[in-house]
Amino acid sequence: MLKDNMLQVVKSLPKIDLHLHLDGSVKPKTVLELATEQGVALPKSDLSSLKPYLQIEDDCPDLKSYLSKFDLVSQVLHTEKALERVAFELVEQAHSQNCKYIEVRFGPQLHRQKGLSLEVVIGSVIKGLNKGEQTFGVRAKAIACCLRHHSVEVNMEVIEAASSFLNSGLVGVDLAGDEASYPAYLFRSVFKIADKKGLPITIHAGEAAGANNIKDAIHKLGASRIGHGVRLKEDMSLFNEVYSRGIPLEMCPISNIQTKASDSWKEYPIREYFDQGLLVTVNTDNLTVSKTTLTKEYMILAKHFEFTTSELAQLVMNGIEASFLEVSDKKELKNICLQEYKQLEGKISEVI
Fold this sequence. Notes:
This protein is α/β, with parallel strands linked by helices.
């Protein structure tokens, strides 16, 4: 059984979230308000009835079904005001979890139905994140996502636009979407350009498809981090390479079970990966869609895998190490977290 004070300690831990989707984390109340402001018709007009359209309620058969929860919210995120607002509110939500740093990813091409340029979309999100940083003291940076169902040409536009914001609120690029239908290797030319422009690369892989997609993400797309990576254990040679190169995994436990990246908690490999020395990080993926928080994710690890508070703290330190921050910023963030750990002395053991 968990100790009585476990929940309170976990709530108090400083946290890091590196895999956090903007459109999957919009508060249902905000969706309702934005729809009213913009004259967008919704299937339900009251909050409780609307939530099932935005969140996974019970069983979710696969990643495609999971992704369908983005359909409704996508209709209200096509103005500068809306994008800035939801980015700001995401920092606010991070603050409520004592999160010290977040990397927020979004697909800029998905927010242009009302004529916004890619630069305005990216700039609006960064403006909201910056405002959130100033208000709540949570550092927040952006990651621009290319989408698997988009053409190479459309994704090239994202890379070009993202490059102009590098080191000005944006820290990397990603490839997201239907992994099983659109393998990583199809986008080799896109991420070759990203690499030339000096954009750090993280790729969704090993979630809805096997270890080969992880291999392609690393070898053909130049990924320095892997989004999810649940199925890495299917290729032990690749496993050893990921270990030896210190390539971080952005694991999202609750989402990974919901999308069937892993069939059950019994099969979920996070304890195995952590114990064997992989650079595992724990993240939320989508606060709204998965009905989750970082505290909830950590409590799941304590319940199903007996992670101690010290081990949870080590996952936080892994997140700092895996982040796309500069070395000096990582050092500063580590010091902030360690100071808070010291304040919890007597409740958790030494982290480092």
